[in-house]
Amino acid sequence: MNVSCNVIKDLIPLYTEDMLSDDSVHLVEKHLEHCDDCRKLLNELNQPYHAPVETDVRPLMKMKSALRKKKATSIALTFVFTLLFSALLFAFVTAPKYLPYSEELIQVSEQAGESIVVEFSEHVSGYDMKRYSSEGEPDMAYHLTTWTTIWEEYIQPNDIGTVVLNAEDETVSSVYYYQTDGAPDRLIYGIDDNPNGGIVTLPRLNLSYYLLIAILLGGLCLVIAAVFRQNKQIAKFSIKTLLLLVSYIIAHLIVRGSTSASYNSTRDLLAIILIVIPLYALILLGINVYSIRRERKQIEKLN
After folding, report:
1. What tens digit of pLDDT does each residue of 4-45 get?
2. What is 4-50 written as a DSSP string?
3. Whose CA is closest to 280, among 249, 235, 238, 234?
4. At what angle do helices 265-302 and 206-227 cross, to 10 degrees?
5. Could you give the angle at which helices 22-32 and 5-16 cross, rounded to 10 degrees?
6. Are residues 109 and 91 in the same domain?
7. Is residue 85 located within the same domain as residue 212?
8. Is the pLDDT score of 218 beyond 80?
9. Sequence-ordered list of residues with C-beta below 8 angstroms from that of 93, at least 6 positions apart, any chain
10. Same domain, yes or no: 91 and 219
11. Based on the domain organization, do 253 and 165 belong to the same domain?
12. Buried-most residue among 102, 125, 201, 271 (CB within 10 A)?
């Protein structure tokens, strides 16, 4: 049976892959015995294929340059975060930690010459004192509180010693200890000039406002990232800002839990920020590592 070369040429690729039946193989081989063109096609198909060598290295150099920039940026950010973390850590260990009243902590006594002296124990690092006079009365009432710091507790103690209240010869009617636990100020010397109830120090609520602002801004960043998802720069900036705000919310929950009222809001805020910095840096580091690994795989494919 005579078969045209076009039919055999259609069968030759299947022949090289051993995908023909025995009858078809016999047909092809019989045709190849007397057809030079078909034998030439078979030889070409049996030759190994060499892929063309890519000589344009510009894409590779561009990716390597981007990796170097990311590495330099990571080093710079690490340096900045380290400095900021160190500064905040020092601020935290030197922030006041208010002390509850005890007779061993502070004593008020009247010395010779009618001087009213406050004697602080060695555990007191600092104090805050306010004074006021009743309307039409020359006598002065004092409200004071004491604190210590981690730095002065464990590293560099600070002994205040004694303080004279009426250094200008004013009359001291009463001295109250300023509480930070919601209890009324405690009379520790003199006569109570608030017979209807003492002054109560309330906790500050500024941490609540900061938390609310972080939640609202986080929602706004999420909306911006969704609306401008086609603009990579805006979307990327919005996502990074969102991650920073999420880090703040997590840190707030770690430090204050579900409550936001605090008598030591400055100290608590410093503690929150100290957690935010490494947490945010860890998130960015994870994203950076993932991005670098993905780009390295692309470079390996090009090589």
Report:
1. 888 888 888 888 888 888 888 888 888 888 888 888 888 888
2. -HHHHHHHHHHHHTT-S-HHHHHHHHHHHTT-HHHHHHHHHHHSPP-
3. 249
4. 20
5. 120
6. no
7. yes
8. yes
9. 149, 150, 151, 155
10. yes
11. no
12. 125
Q: Which domain holds residue 209?
A: 58-95+205-261+264-302
pLDDT of 225-278, one tens digit each?
999 988 888 988 999 999 999 999 998 988 888 777 777 787 788 888 888 888
Question: What CA–CA distance (Å, rounded) separates 101 from 157?
Answer: 20
Contact 217, 245 (CB under 8 A): yes
Q: Tell me the CA distances in angstroms from 159 to 42, 90, 107, 121, 169, one per residue in order.
A: 99, 20, 15, 8, 25
Q: CA distances (Å), 94 to each of 171, 201, 218, 250, in order?
A: 34, 23, 31, 24
Do 11 and 77 sit in the same domain of this protein? Answer: no
Are the C-beta atoms of residues 106 and 146 closer than 8 Å to each other? yes
Q: Is residue 171 part of a domain?
A: yes
Of the candidates 167, 190, 213, which is a domain's last residue? 190
DSSP code of 168?
T
